[in-house]
Amino acid sequence: MLDATRSPLHPAARETLLAALDAGWADPRRLHSDGRRARLLLDRARESVAVSIGARPDEVSFHPSGAHALRTGVAGLRHARRRAGSRVLTSAVDRAVMLHESHEADPDSRPLPVDAAGRLSPETLREAVATGPAALVAVQHANGEVGTVQPVAALHDVCRAAGLPLLVDGTSSLGRIEGPGSWDVLVGDAATIAGPPVGVLAVRTGTRFDLPGPRWEPEHGREVEDPWVPLVLAAAEAWQHAVHERAQEEASARALTDRIREAAAAVPDVEVVGDPVDRLPHVVTFSALYVDGESIVGELDRRGIEVASGSACTSSRLEPSHVLAAMGALTHGNVRVTLPLGAVRPERADDVSALCRELPSVVAELRARLGVGDL
Questions:
Q1: Is the domain of 255 the same as that of 335?
Q2: pTM over 0.85
Q3: Which domain holds residue 77?
Q4: Of 241, 276, 294, which residue constitutes the final position of a domain?
Q5: CB of 226 closer than 8 Å to CB of 4
Q6: Does residue 375 belong to any structural domain of this protein?
């Protein structure tokens, strides 16, 4: 399995989830003993996740998914700063949900351009900020499709100078690499580190944040209902293990993706994209000229190798990636590899070996069917 945008649960997270079905099922707002126990477990999970992502417990809230947490974060910043401006500045390689939020805030606004590696420069952001009032800046910590890490600290400096809050989307990175130290709002997804799909939203103390509509009690007023405690406990366990195992996991994953990058680059007319060094350790994307990604995915699948195509930042539709288009990269024949954690897939090195072995013949055979061959 080399498509782990969603993966099986980490064994420890799975055990925690099963145990929590008996211990933490109750409504944490009830005053009876089961309710109080659930509240205690929820508070402990919040403390654990806060430590894992570099936040305070009273800054953290739980949400049904990473995308939901992203939208909540943008909504809270936009509403709180509605008198200051309406634009949501984001880059052309950010997730589709962020591009939608930016367009919704200002239909005339365009996402900010990036370089060939998919990186937003501080100077580009500085120029955009100078063109008029804005509500916030929202950027990814690292791109989940090509892996490139953004210069978050430098971007945050630009935001501070302009008096703008910075929302950092860490849904592809938190737990996989060291977290960004510079942010006003931070978003993560436990599914990234083999947890359940629980979104996490952290709002720095002192940041103006106010959601529109009625004021709810759960999750610092950011959700209508309390989260289901067993899922949150499993998410906290997954994050705790990810942080503890990160150094070893990162080194192991990077060695495997280096092998994939080298094997793909050796195939004629195949382009490996993203920064080769400053990147997520578990993500590789490459594109093969003359063939389409769906055909490559299908042929590899017939050989027992599971990869993805299209864009990790949109839906499962196999359409040209807006990320690759923004980078000026080849969008035909796009293949994306997302390594699962070693704890979830101990045999992942064998999967990588199989991909490296089969890829040249798969591409050659598909080109031969089209009558183009390797030119």
A1: yes
A2: yes
A3: 11-241
A4: 241
A5: no
A6: no
In the chain, the number of structural domains is: 2
| C-alpha dist (Å) from residue 358 to 292, 303, 307, 350, 354 | 17, 8, 13, 12, 6
Given a contact cutoff of 8 angstroms between Cβ atoms, the answer to whether 141 and 108 are in contact is no
The DSSP secondary-structure symbol of 1 reads: -
Residue 352 covered by a domain:
yes
Do residues 232 and 198 touch, judged by C-beta distance below 8 A?
yes
Query: Are 298 and 229 found together in one domain?
Result: no
Expressed in angstroms, the distance from the first to the final Cα of the chain is 31
| Pair 187, 282 in one domain | no
Choosing from 210, 241, 272, the residue where a domain stops is 241
| Alpha helices for the chain (secondary structure H) | 11-23, 33-53, 66-80, 96-105, 122-130, 152-162, 218-221, 229-265, 293-302, 322-327, 348-370
Which amino acid type is present at position 239? W
Shared domain for 212 and 96, answered yes or no, is: yes
CA distances from 341 to 54, 122, 147, 168 (A): 21, 32, 16, 23
Alpha-carbon distance of 297 to 369, in angstroms, equals 16
User: Residue 63 and residue 199: Cα distance in Å, rounded?
Assistant: 5
Largest separation between any pair of C-alpha atoms in the chain: 73
pLDDT tens digits for range 49-61: 999 999 999 999 9
**Token pair in block for residue 220:** 């610092």
- The residues with which 221 forms a beta bridge, in sequence order, are none
Planar angle of CA 322, 142, 262, nearest 5 degrees: 80
CATH assignment of the domain containing 102: 3.40.640.10
Task: Round to whole Å and give the CA distance between 47 and 50.
Answer: 5
337 secondary structure, DSSP code? E
259-298 pLDDT tens trace: 999 999 999 999 999 999 999 999 999 999 999 888 999 9
Q: What is the dihedral of CA 110, 114, 118, 120, to 10 degrees?
A: -100
Residues forming beta bridges with residue 148, ordered by sequence position: 279
Query: Looking at the domain assignment, is residue 48 inside a domain?
Result: yes
DSSP letter for each residue of 280-322:
-TTEEEEEETTS-HHHHHHHHHHTT---B-S-TTS-S-----H
Structure tokens at 79: 């509403």
